[in-house]
Amino acid sequence: MFEPPTLKDIANALGLSTSTVSRALRDTYEISAKTKKLVFEYAEKINYQPNPNALSLKERRTKSIGVVVSEVANHYFSQAINGIESIAYDRGYHVIITQTHESYAREKINVQHLASRSIDGLLISLSAETSDTAHLKYLHERGMPMVFFDRVPNDIHTHKITANNEQGAFEATSHLIISGYKKIAHLTSSDHLSISIERLRGYTAALNKYNIPVNPDYIKHCPHGGMFPEETERAVLELVNLKDKPDAIFIAGDRLSIGCLEVLKKLNVKVPDQIALAGFSNSDVLNLFEYPISSVRQPAFKMGETATEMLLQLIESKYPVTDFENKVIDTELFTRN
């Protein structure tokens, strides 16, 4: 079993006391420059690292934050994590990343595990299955600093950061209407997720603006956001098998967009000749397809940065924070003719 080098190992090797080694590494004035040089050089040679648990007992901090996302492979989350790390590491914090794979049970286990590791705070984007947030409320009420981003709950009072989902959905749906499509379906994630509710609202607002009736048969929810291919396939089949088929689909997520394209290709449905698509996507993969797909891009990196700054502000505040912010960042529509 690997055992990292300790202060005692340095002391024994150099014939010094552990307290002298400890003071030398802390660069205190009572230790001579010659001894400090000797200790620092030997510590570097054996790759000595201070014990984070011992430090945390002193400082009451572990200098680590937990991150809970649905899936690291998702382009939005991978970009958001880059933003999180850019701030955290710069401020001396370690980042522990966990994935829920859209499972409520996995989210609970991950959160409990992170809390048991005495992290200083949590950054969370809810799983598609999560409608009960009791496991998060419990920690929040006991003083665990937490910030929600992208997929946020209504019932926990803390900092939250989201993209302007409603505006993005409105612009994407309007783009399809202006391009001549009138029978526009909507493929989205679970019906209780904040992003699904907001994007559905934007889709509906665009139809209302152009006096197009909302057809409930055209709205399809995938409870796990397309994590399971059969979920997307079932929803797309239901749409293309309708007597009054849609001529376009506004898709509310990266994984759903790629899943929908795979199903349409398998069914030999031509995009955009038979069905046009527009979606929410941070993936550059869409640029490689032979058929054009307009997409709403979220400022994922900036959202990760901002959420981390908000969390560190909570962690490092000397007084309890009671004034919380709901920050909404604008999206950008990339149109492809």
Q: CA-to-CA gap between the ends? A: 60 Å
Low-confidence stretches: none
Molecular shape = elongated
According to CATH, what is the class of the largest domain? Alpha Beta
Number of domains: 3
Helix coverage percent of residues?
40-55%
The spatial strand order of the largest sheet comes to: 2-1-3-4-5-11
The secondary structure category is: alpha/beta
Q: Could you tell me the number of beta strands?
A: 12
Report strand %.
Answer: 15-25%
User: What is the C-alpha radius of gyration, as a whole number of Å?
Assistant: 25 Å
CATH superfamily of the largest domain: Response regulator
Order of helices and strands: HHHHEHEHEHEEHEHEHEHEEHEE
Calculate the mean pLDDT score and round it. Answer: 90
Helix count, per DSSP?
A: 12
CATH architecture of the largest domain: 3-Layer(aba) Sandwich
Characterization of the model:
The mean pLDDT is 90. It is built from twelve helices and twelve strands. The protein has three domains: 7-50, no CATH class; 59-162 and 300-329, Rossmann fold; 165-297, 3-Layer(aba) Sandwich (Rossmann fold), CATH 3.40.50.2300. It has a six-stranded parallel β-sheet with strand order 2-1-3-4-5-11, sandwiched between helices. Strands 7-6-8-9-10-12 form a six-stranded mixed β-sheet, sandwiched between helices. It has 337 residues and is α/β, with parallel strands linked by helices. Helix 1 crosses helix 2 (18-25) and helix 10 crosses helix 11 (254-266). GO terms for molecular function: DNA-binding transcription factor activity; transcription cis-regulatory region binding.
